[in-house]
Amino acid sequence: MKKKVDSWFGYMGQVLRVDLTHRKCRVEPLQKELVENFIGGRGFGAKILWDEIPAGIDPLSPENKLVISTGPLTGTKVQSASRWVAQFKSPLTGIYCRSVGGGYFGAELKFAGYDMVIVEGKAERPVYVWIDDDKVEFKNATKVWGMNTLAARDFLLEETEKGARAIIVGPAGENLVKVAAIVTDDSRTAARGGPGAVMGSKNLKAIVVKGSKKPVIYNEEALGEAVKEQIQAYRQWSHFKDFHELGTDHAVYLWYTFGHFPPYNFQQRELAGVERFRPEVLASYVVGHKGCYGCMVRCGKVFKVTKGPYAGIAWEFPELETHWSFGGILGNCNIESIIAANMLCDLYGLDTISTGVAIAFATELYEKGIIGKSETDGLELKWGDAEVMLEMVKRIALRMGNMGNLLAEGTKRAAEIIGRGAEKYAMHIKGLEMPAYDPRAMKGQGLGLATGTIGGSHAISWNKFEILGVPKKVDPFIVEGKAELAKYVQDEMAACETAVFCKLTVNHNMTNPNFYSKVLYSATGIEEFKDPKYLWLVGERIWNLERAFDVREGIERKHDTVPVRLLKEAMPRAPAKGQIFELDKLLKDYYRVRGWDERGSPTKKKLVELGLVEVAGELEKKALPT
Amino acid sequence: MKKKVDSWFGYMGQVLRVDLTHRKCRVEPLQKELVENFIGGRGFGAKILWDEIPAGIDPLSPENKLVISTGPLTGTKVQSASRWVAQFKSPLTGIYCRSVGGGYFGAELKFAGYDMVIVEGKAERPVYVWIDDDKVEFKNATKVWGMNTLAARDFLLEETEKGARAIIVGPAGENLVKVAAIVTDDSRTAARGGPGAVMGSKNLKAIVVKGSKKPVIYNEEALGEAVKEQIQAYRQWSHFKDFHELGTDHAVYLWYTFGHFPPYNFQQRELAGVERFRPEVLASYVVGHKGCYGCMVRCGKVFKVTKGPYAGIAWEFPELETHWSFGGILGNCNIESIIAANMLCDLYGLDTISTGVAIAFATELYEKGIIGKSETDGLELKWGDAEVMLEMVKRIALRMGNMGNLLAEGTKRAAEIIGRGAEKYAMHIKGLEMPAYDPRAMKGQGLGLATGTIGGSHAISWNKFEILGVPKKVDPFIVEGKAELAKYVQDEMAACETAVFCKLTVNHNMTNPNFYSKVLYSATGIEEFKDPKYLWLVGERIWNLERAFDVREGIERKHDTVPVRLLKEAMPRAPAKGQIFELDKLLKDYYRVRGWDERGSPTKKKLVELGLVEVAGELEKKALPT
Known about the structure:
The structure is a homodimer of 626-residue chains.
Chain A: E1 14-19, E2 24-29, H1 32-38, H2 41-52, E3 65-69, E4 84-89, E5 96-101, H3 105-111, E6 116-120, E7 127-132, E8 135-140, H4 149-159, E9 165-168, H5 171-174, E10 182-184, E11 189-190, H6 195-201, E12 204-210, H7 220-236, H8 240-246, H9 252-258, H10 263-266, H11 279-283, E13 286-290, E14 300-304, E15 314-316, H12 320-325, H13 335-348, H14 352-367, H15 386-398, H16 401-407, H17 411-418, E16 428-429, E17 432-433, H18 443-451, H19 464-468, H20 482-496, H21 503-507, H22 513-524, H23 532-552, H24 564-568, H25 583-594, H26 604-609, H27 613-623
Parallel strand pairs in A: 1-6, 7-12
Antiparallel strand pairs in A: 1-2, 3-4, 3-6, 4-5, 7-8, 9-10, 9-12, 10-11, 13-14, 14-15, 16-17
Helix pairs in contact in A: 1-2, 2-23, 7-22, 13-15, 15-16, 18-20, 18-25, 20-23, 20-25, 22-23, 23-27
């Protein structure tokens, strides 16, 4: 870890630090040590957050920072490696958060000459940052403040440059809605954990970027060869066609048959009308295919609505998760309304998962009689009522009425405010609303959710062993050995999200440290990166650093859990009928496998082994009671 | 009129005839006689319609034609002269219709080499026409069929060329909604009379065009001089700032004080909350300024909504008429909702005037107890209920429910179907919903509306004498001499809309035959055009030809009227309190001044004097009973 990085092959070598309070920008050299130890993307952000965000700060205060990072392969010809990462202390969960976005923004940021942007402070008045290669300007955003993301985009690109790329917040972010997303010019989102609210709290409407540079590659020929192989492998990939034709949506119905896609706020009654989520039905809505920079998969599908009250909409797009969060979990099989809800979320700048889960929470409270019309501003919250669902999306984004304002705080906080046992129906983990996976149906996946460093995220702990049977098939109901698998997928994803590789390709084992090391070395020429083992180590290092951040914020064993319903109520439907989630056994194994203590803290030994000596020191000093 | 046109200065010299039935396009030479007699734009279309659309055809049948035309000044440096005209037999009124749109489409069409496009027949399946200079293609529109205009635009420009320009129909046009508009890529519309339904009936989703040519100017220097003077005059124009800063909306409140902007479906009770329409309030919503090709006025305003349930919208824009049709006439002073309604109309492709007036009609029927909830699909139609208004816009566009489907037929037809005296509350003239003018408050303006060749249109008969006092001030309540004024403004507008000049500049006398002849001659070199008197003659010729078309379709004296309410109920509010509309006297004068007979038919003498000999022959033969 002490070797020199000889040149900035693969990287641009610059970090842009944006101080909103003083309206100053500073270009800092990219530190070799940071590169060697953390590679890029998610690794960079985890390190910056650990170093620069003291424990206990208010995530919506100027003290919070927003790190937007790219990786050494961003903007290169490597396929599926050009996403960008937003990292921040989450206003939704109060802990570490990483949220990844797609489209073309990441590549463009790199082309402008920056591997990373660190946004800090708070602007006095609404601003946006216009990065035009070396020229960086703070621009007045008063005009676009209040606009939805699409309207704002058109204004911003008009005011800067037509082909520029942007990340933008909508009214939800401005309104400090805790589940607010960042949305790109092409309607991709970094949504989880409330990054939109962080931008909103900083009076930052958008970052617009245009670049004319390219990363210099260490060994173009070797990289070219590897990419050729990658493309070849894509062509032989058994799921390539699925993703190419229907994106993540090819799996919606399959998920339901696995016992996921949990209907009725995880009550898991059979979902009437679930046939509408079959791939052939969903495919009938698709009229277009969109992708990210440098990715032949083009998994973004444009859905067209031609019937019912939402006719006229064409939007990219509800993903699997969104079909659930505005579909299954709400007992709603009206696809048209799900597309409409997805569109509203993108326009307002909302996380579709968290928004849908929050509405499901309120719907179950209403069903159970815990809340009534006086608390819902007259709305009758019913399973499968599409109009009410869309109305609630709007109310959350705009903080309209009692219930809109309440759910805008996120499910966990809303449950705390409501009291009366509402927490039982709040389907979150560490404050982050759960995704379309039921821990009872797949134990390794459940363990990943329970221990996720950002809370209940499928993305960072996706158990490909259980779900796809890759790299090898395992029984989803078995508890034994699942800690190892959870660690495996967590570390692997952490490593790959430094590239920044797309999680889909990691999930399907198209990207893994073996392949990654090859392209990474070809691009950067950094010796350590040649060794897949080193990438695994970096992955584990990142995961532990993220956990250390959380521990420093007060996270411990009791937070590594899932909603109580999943621990106590047996799964009512096949194939996981009768299953509960065996948290204690799984967690015990997990801490052992991770080398953490019984409170869930990384041990000094583990941290030192991972090269995180200072982290060990600080954790000892600050987080661990004597 | 017999002189040769020596060259195609100012014109491109080509007409594109698009036969959708046989998927064939033919380029026809622009006829010199057509140019000499009808100049361009509205004149061209009036002549084509007269020649090619036999009486009695169904406007939604393949027999109808859609003429899209430009003028000799389109795409030149002359200011405010690049609009485009859509002409067709109206499915709403069953008579002649002309509808004018702005933006950049007209100039682009001309740059592609065409002065006019004549669309005929009906495509078997949804298509769009892609005009790329000389290359014209029929392209499959199955994908974009069903999409709102904005979504469709993005698809179409992706599939053709990014900088291309387009006219598009939305779901309303596809659904053959009789008040459906054509919408441009930049959200301008040719809206009146249902041109969107004509395109829909032809399975024509859009015309997309990209051009690289320019009209050759006869005398560049002279034209340059004239345009310099024009720009100078604009700068000194007392209303330039008004239009530049607030578009037509600077006049909204003023109109109300004139006795126009008739509230509550022309019941003309005082409008509670009308102060919200004051210019300074409206200006507070404006965040952007847009314009048409070659126009420094940039009267298009982008309105931003930052509060209430429609927050997040930024849209160009409700004009004066729309503030009325979704505002005053509905007793609605919620500006935010008017912006939202305007946006919905543009997305669905609806005429904002007709849509709002149709909803006002239904609202008054509901108020009077003529219809009830069983006929409104459960909706309670109330004055000033913004949510219900927006719901009705959607239902009309999508033909949802009984009332949506009924109003989609237009107010006149809906009243006929409802019966029970509903016609009394149907504020249309010859089937075209009325604009924000009350004939009782300005008699010349009323006469213009009553005699409009397309029905109740403010645009083609705008009485600048009464409203602005230009070219000279006259008392609006006086009946005497108003026939002459009505003829004056009608002929002048007809002449100027051949350029195609923007009506705003004609209304304000910034454009008139004196100025027009100067630039027209400089651009074309056609001797006749030098003489303003000739332009007046052409204007009168066009008006009479349009009237002849209507007469051939059965229009006669009894149709030259206004809703009975305006003839019998005295105006209840100042400044026109106590006034009624004195139709008989006005009409008698008008026919005399026009040289028409007592049935409202142009006489043979008049037609021959105007050079419309064949028209006289056909009218004698077909339309006039012996």
